[in-house]
Amino acid sequence: MIKIILLSLTLVSCTESFKRKIKTVQSEYTGGLDRICTIYSLSGTVIKEYKGSFDIARAENQLQFDIDGKRITVFNSPAVCEEI
After folding, report:
1. How many CB atoms lie within 10 A of CB 48?
2. Distances in Å between the alpha carbon of 12 and those of 15, 22, 82?
3. What pTM does this model have?
């Protein structure tokens, strides 16, 4: 029975969805992940780039994060946020 439980835990911990959940927990409890977030205009021009350790909150047409003690809220603009 113990072997089955250990095998199940090993298999589950190797999945990509499990790894994403671990990253989510890590981001939530350590103040965010190191990221670069680039905000674009609708024509594709770079408006602003943010680099630092932060958590991202998303809604339907809104992106929000806190960086350097300031809250950044982006409405209706394409954005690419990458972990570095």
Report:
1. 12
2. 6, 12, 26
3. 0.70
Strand order in 79-83's β-sheet? 46-54, 33-40, 79-83
Q: Do residues 53 and 81 share a domain?
A: yes
Q: Give the tens place of pLDDT for each residue, 3-34.
A: 666 556 565 567 788 777 887 777 777 778 88
CA 38, CA 48: separation in Å to the nearest integer? 6
Range of the domain at 21: 1-30
pLDDT at 43 over 80: yes
The count of domains in the chain is 2
